[in-house]
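Dear colleagues,

As part of the handover before I leave the project, I'm documenting each prediction I ran so the next person doesn't have to rerun anything. This entry is a single chain, and its sequence is reproduced below.
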Amino acid sequence: MLSYVLRRLVRQFAPVIVIASVLIFVLAELLPGDPAAIALGETATPESVAAMRHEMGLDRPLPERYVRWLGSAIEGDLGRSTTGKSVTELITASAPPTLELALIAFTLGNLLGITLGVLAGIHRGGPIDMAIGVFTSLVIAVPSFVSGLVILLVFTVWVSWLPSAGRASLLSSPLEGAKYLVLPTVALSSTVAAVVSRFTRQSIVDVLTNDFIRTARAKGLSGRAVIIRHALKPSMLPVVTIIGVQLGGLIGGSIVIEQVFTRPGMGRLLIGAVNSKDYPTIQAITLLLVSTYIVFNLLTDLLYAWLDPRLRPALGSPG
C-alpha cells in the first residue's frame, strides 16, 4: 500500500502540480494592472512604484520569479500579500469557514444522495423513483449559485426564518452557527445529493440483477437484509469515484456559495485578491485547490480498493 501511494505521488501528483503551478503563475501574471501601483494607490509616484516592484520582485525575469515562488511554496512559504501580511496567515484565518461549509455539505449531500439513490433503485419505475428523478434532474440543471439566490429569496426575504449573511462559530455558539450554516449548506449539498443519487440508483439496479442477490433472497432473507448485507457495499464501487470528485470540487463550490451568502472564507479572500491583483494570494489559493483535488483523488483510489478486494494485490497488500 505504501509503495503504491508513493508511486502515485511521484507519477501523478508531482507532474500535475508542476504543470498546474506553471499555468497558475502565468495566468496570474496576465491579469490587467500593476500590483505594485494598486498596492500603493493612485497617488503613488513612478519612483515609489518602481521601488515597490523591486521589493516585490516584479522586475525580475518571469522564469526566475516562477522558480523562486515554487521553491518557496514547497518549503511552506507562500509569500506576502500586497497588503503586507503573510499569505499563509491569511489562508489559515480564512480556511476554517470554507472547510466547515464544504465538509458539512459533503457529509449531508452524500448521506442524502445515497439514501435517495437506494430508494429509487429499489422502487425502480415506481412513483418514488419518478419523484426522485424529477428532483435530481431539477437540481442538476440549476447552478448552485442560482439555487442559492432562490433559497435566499424564500427563507430570508419572504419568510425571514434564517440570516442571509455572515457566520458564527459552531464551537463557541453551536445554535447561532447552525443558523448561518443552514442556507449555504442546503445550496451546496443539494447538487452533491442529486449527482450521487443518480449514480447510486443505477448501481443498485445493476447489483440487484446479479445471481448472488437472487441466492440471498432464495435463502429467505428480508428485502432490507439483502440490500444492507449484500447489495449496498458492491453497489458503492462506482459511487466512490463520483464522491471523490465531488469532495474535491466542493472546496471550489464553497468559494462561489460564500459570495452568494456573504460568508467569510477563502472565497472572499480570493475575490479580494483578484480585485487588487494580489499575485501571491491568488497563486497560493489556486495551487491549494488543485493540490486538494489531487489528494482526494488518491484517497478515492484507496477507498475503492478497500471496497473491492480484487484490487488489493495491485496496491501491494495481501490478496
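DSSP finds twelve helices and no strands in the chain. The domain at 92-263+293-315 is CATH 1.10.3720.10 (MetI-like fold).

All the best with the project,
I.
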